[in-house]
């Protein structure tokens, strides 16, 4: 359950970070400590969620399906989503968010810092939203 509840916080922080960066980019604000912290919280929350999910992946009952079905998991759409698509896309999303964090630190102008955060965090957020198992979330 912590993986599901923490996901709400992750989504909230990522949405705030993306909106904050878009506003900062479009209004030519200076990149302040507040903006840095918002982006950093987005990075930290997503990494914590990734660790929770990584542990859950290997201890869940669904992981046993790999041993029972092997590559037959790919024929079952629900298992494929939970055991292949979700972890893969989330890993890519977290990698993009991490890249955005790293790239923003190397930028010299505030506008480009906001731009890196907005782009990479935004694409990562879209990837996350695309692979959330919504049918299980609202069940």
TrEMBL record:
Keywords on record: Membrane, Transmembrane, Transmembrane helix
Q: What stretches pass through the bilayer? A: 6-26, 38-59, 79-102, 114-134
Domain of life of the source: Bacteria
This protein's name? 50S ribosomal protein L27
Q: Source organism lineage?
A: Bacteria, Pseudomonadati, Bacteroidota, Flavobacteriia, Flavobacteriales
